[in-house]
Amino acid sequence: MGIQRSLFPRPLRVTPDGVVAVGGRPDPQVLEEAYRSGIFPWPHEGVPLLWFCPDPRFVLTPERAHISRSLRKTLRRGRFEVTADRDFRAVIRACAGKERPDQGGTWITAEMIAGYTALHDRGIAHSVEAWLDGRLVGGLYGVSLGAVFFGESMFAEVADASKVCFATLLAHLVRWDFQLVDCQQETRHLASFGAEPWARPRFLAELRRALQHPTRRGPWTFDLYPGATAVI
Prior knowledge:
single chain, seven-stranded mixed sheet, 10 strands, alpha+beta
């Protein structure tokens, strides 16, 4: 039996912008190998698909997450119903359609939606939804392998909806012994939860260890009451 060749080069040698590879399609098997290698896709208009492993990498350790006092109060009020994997397709479409002033258009193309939806159908891509009076008002989605959750995108139509989703997810990741949340690149929103920059070699080493754990395949369900998410 021959040795199976990896689709991606080792991500320790990349361009200054963190580009590891160019081209290909975000098919589910390609996406899964990319994440296992510490690589993620990021489409840019007018060029073939780009695959990144930036340095530094923005990472959150679930058990060290910070929940602000105001968010704790919001969680305890229980204003939102928060679910997991109830409507992945609606969440990823909402993320794709959300206007983001710092981006020239969406990177969540039809091909990307198809690829991540296929991963969801395989049980390794997940969504978290916030509902208000039966209406979807916020959410996030990402990929889960081993003891790692790779966050991809989030949206909110109502204040605090996406924050409540993320806090509820973090509480369950702590309960399920997850070790890492890959936030990819720095944002003030994620920094407020305690995410911090890691050098690429550190991230890749911790990723290898976390991937040795069994993957918690979907569909996921949440069972912590709202106030419990405020004590992580």
